[in-house]
Write a structure and sequence with these properties.
- The protein is built from 19 helices and 25 strands.
- By secondary structure, the protein is an alpha/beta fold.
- It folds into 3 domains: 10-133 and 257-434, Rossmann fold; 136-254, Domain 2, N(10)-formyltetrahydrofolate synthetase, CATH 3.30.1510; 449-531, Formyltetrahydrofolate synthetase, domain 3, CATH 3.10.410.10.
- Strand 5 and strand 6 form a beta hairpin.
- Mean pLDDT is 95; it is low at 1-6.
Length: 561
């Protein structure tokens, strides 16, 4: 007889023992008719929102799961999101989960996948973490079709007068590959194109990804694609995708991908997984279409935004909520004992040792995130994502602090116990949903770009001011001249610190944020402010996770997570 202790207790091992229901059964449970389902095998499907029957009831409530500033391994937001969704469903609440799709970059790099973990996973985890339904490939293809058309336009006479030195769009690939950050193309003679400096971003940093995730439908997708700025003419006038006439072909590549992907949790809760921008270099939220489709089907939708609340949650509320109407009715802040210890001064290789004082010292980071959520008119709920090495004394530090400050707090052991381990958190979230809230974005869109950036730096990060590079100052003038001042801000910043310096842990104050570039994303509808040393094309670590991965003789994944 095989006991649990004898079994593979990795996420992949646990997932491989789960018994999945046919996706048609999951769709039926969610109220999705058969004619709206496009099957991708037995356990995955795309859903056509246009074929759904509208509910008479109002749209479902939104629970946003965010976190404190993470360790490099992440603090388990997706795991808590899935576990909370399962726990809410167990109370009899009609619940759906809405997550981002995983990127191959962190999967084969260091951070891992995005399907949860332990007994709080969406399935089939190996397929979702790999190619899934091909959405990222479609986005990559649309982006690179655009760039092929741009370079062909230069080669064929450049009727638009595009300055090759001022092309701001890049090609993309869904992989961490530092060698592609800066390249030269068009070499080899007159028949090989116009030589110019270029580069690659990772697919999740592409504006096509942002447009995909913020579009409300096919028509809006095409309009947003057409509005994207790809560069500037010799007299510094913006050139758009619409000027090039490429939006139709790009939309054709994306039309099927735009339909949300339906899968299931280990407990059988329906989940949409759709779109996947990073939150440190993009806006960090799943698609508007998936979120609002879930809201049309369920009373409560549990979703997440990437990295700490200074990144994903701020962008959810200042960008996604403005465009979609899906403002959060409750916000869950995920904390871990290991992250608290790291922000309390403990070295990364010593986080497994009990250190009650370090947990207490690290609370400054969590406290600032909680205070920041309150600035949006929402009272947060703290979820302590429990790890096996956490001690009762360490956990008590957090629960006692939360109680003393009037903040709901629950220990969530969803990795080890699934929905049962999230029951206390689910009850706290239901109370938060029922409580009145006064949600409002942090800043008014009519403020100048500089004021919006300064507001985020002071109110969310705790900084004192902003310093712009010479290039960023020139772009500020261009933004003003082109009438883009009324767009929201998307900060590209390290996830490890409130500042732009990853080594400043805890809750630093009084620093000056360095903005080295400003990139107008006129299709997505925001201005990216690139800070510090942040990269839009990550690199692999010394020993990538890919080095332990394989398939067995039956073609099953091995060593995934």
């Amino acid at each position: 007889m095989t006991t649990t202790s004898d079994q593979d207790m990795s996420d992949l091992g646990i997932a491989s023992r789960a018994v999945l229901e046919p996706i048609s059964a999951i769709a039926e449970r969610a109220g999705i008719p058969e004619e709206a389902i496009e099957h991708y095998g037995r356990y995955k499907a795309k859903i056509d929102p246009a074929l759904l029957v509208s509910r008479d009831a109002q749209l479902g409530k939104v629970v946003l799961v965010s976190a404190m500033s993470p360790t490099p391994a992440g603090e388990g937001k997706s795991t808590v999101t899935v576990g909370l969704g399962d726990a809410l469903a167990a109370t009899g609440t009609t619940t759906m989960i809405a997550l981002r799709e995983p990127s191959l970059g962190p999967i084969f790099g260091m951070k891992g996948g995005a399907t949860g973990g332990g007994y709080a996973q969406v399935l089939p985890m190996d397929e979702i973490n790999m190619h899934f339904t091909g959405d990222f490939h479609a986005i990559t293809s649309a982006n690179n079709l655009l760039m092929a058309l741009v370079d062909n336009h230069l080669h064929q006479g450049n009727a638009l007068g595009i300055d090759p030195r001022r092309i701001t769009f890049k090609r993309v690939i869904d992989m961490n590959d530092r060698a592609l950050r800066n390249i030269v193309i068009g070499l080899g003679g007159p028949t090989e194109g116009v030589p110019r400096e270029a580069g690659f971003d990772i697919t999740v940093a592409s504006e096509v990804m942002a447009v995909f995730c913020l579009a409300t439908g096919l028509e809006d997708l095409k309009s947003r694609l057409a509005r994207m700025t790809i560069g500037y003419t010799y007299d510094k006038q913006p050139v758009t995708v619409g000027d090039l006439g490429a939006e139709g072909a790009m939309t054709m590549l994306l039309k099927d991908a735009l339909k949300p992907n339906l899968v299931q949790t280990m407990a059988g809760t329906p989940a949409f997984i759709h779109g996947g921008p990073f939150a440190n270099i993009a806006h960090g939220c799943n698609s508007v279409i998936a979120t609002n489709t879930a809201r049309s089907l369920a009373d409560v939708v549990v979703t997440e935004a990437g990295f700490g609340a200074d990144l994903g949650a701020e962008k959810f509320m200042d960008i996604k909520a403005r465009f979609s109407g899906a403002h959060p009715d409750a916000v869950v802040l995920v904390a871990t004992i290991r992250a608290l210890k790291m922000h309390g001064g403990v070295a990364k290789d010593a986080l497994k040792t009990e250190n009650v004082q370090a947990v207490r010292d690290g609370l400054a980071n969590l406290a600032r995130h909680a205070a920041n959520i309150q600035k949006f008119g929402i009272q947060p709920v703290i979820a302590i994502n429990k790890f096996t090495l956490d001690t009762e004394a360490e956990l008590a530090v957090v629960t006692d602090w939360a109680g003393a400050n009037g903040i709901e707090c629950a220990i969530a052991d969803v990795w080890g116990r699934g929905a049962d381990g999230g029951a206390e958190l689910a009850e706290a979230v239901l109370r938060a949903i029922a409580a009145p809230s006064n949600f409002a974005p942090l800043y008014d869109l009519d403020l100048p770009i500089e004021e919006k950036i300064l507001t985020v730096v002071k109110e969310i990060y705790g900084g004192a001011g902003v310093e712009y590079s010479a290039g960023a100052k020139r772009m500020l003038k261009q933004i003003h001249d082109n009438g883009w001042d009324n767009l929201p801000i998307c900060m590209a910043k390290t996830q490890y610190s409130f500042s732009d310096d990853a080594s400043l842990l805890g809750a630093p104050e009084g620093f000056t944020l360095q903005v080295r570039d400003l990139i107008p994303k006129t299709g997505a509808g925001f201005i990216v402010a690139v800070t510090g040393a942040i990269m839009t094309m990550p690199g692999l670590p010394k020993v990538p996770a890919a080095m332990r991965m394989d398939v067995d003789d039956n073609g099953h994944a091995v060593g995934l997570f």
